[in-house]
């Protein structure tokens, strides 16, 4: 499971991270801040962190040796 960390003080609630998440694991809460609603579905692609204009999102990806699994490629 990937750990997506969102700094709520930096998040302005623009929704860009939620728009670029290919598995729709991120949502905006009632206060308009992003959060990871379905962490088990996260594929650790890092698109949320890449496109966050305020650098409020980070993805902790476990280090693995070797190639990316076929399952990760198809996800």
Largest sheet: 2 strands, antiparallel
Name the strands of the widest sheet in spatial order: 1-4
The rounded distance between the terminal residues' Cα atoms is 14 Å
- Which second-level CATH architecture applies? 2-Layer Sandwich
Q: What Rg is obtained from the alpha carbons, in whole angstroms?
A: 12 Å
Choose one word for the global shape.
globular
Strand content: 15-25%
Q: Would you state the CATH class?
A: Alpha Beta
Mean pLDDT value: 86
Helix run count:
3
Written description of the protein model:
- It is a single chain.
- By secondary structure, this protein is of the alpha+beta class.
- It has a single domain, classed as Alpha-Beta Plaits, CATH 3.30.70.20.
- It has 3 helices and 4 strands; from the N terminus they run βαββαβα.
- Strands 1-4 form a two-stranded antiparallel sheet. The chain has a two-stranded antiparallel ribbon with strand order 2-3.
- The radius of gyration is 12 Å and the shape is globular.
- It starts with a strand and ends with a helix.
- 19% of the residues are buried.
Briefly summarize what is shown.
By secondary structure, the protein is of the alpha+beta class. Helix content is 20%, strand content 19%. It has helices spanning 16-20, 47-51, 70-74; strands spanning 3-6, 26-28, 34-36, 57-60.
Features:
single chain; 75 residues; alpha+beta; Alpha-Beta Plaits; globular
Per-chain topology:
Elements: E1 3-6, H1 16-20, E2 26-28, E3 34-36, H2 47-51, E4 57-60, H3 70-74
Antiparallel strand pairs: 1-4, 2-3
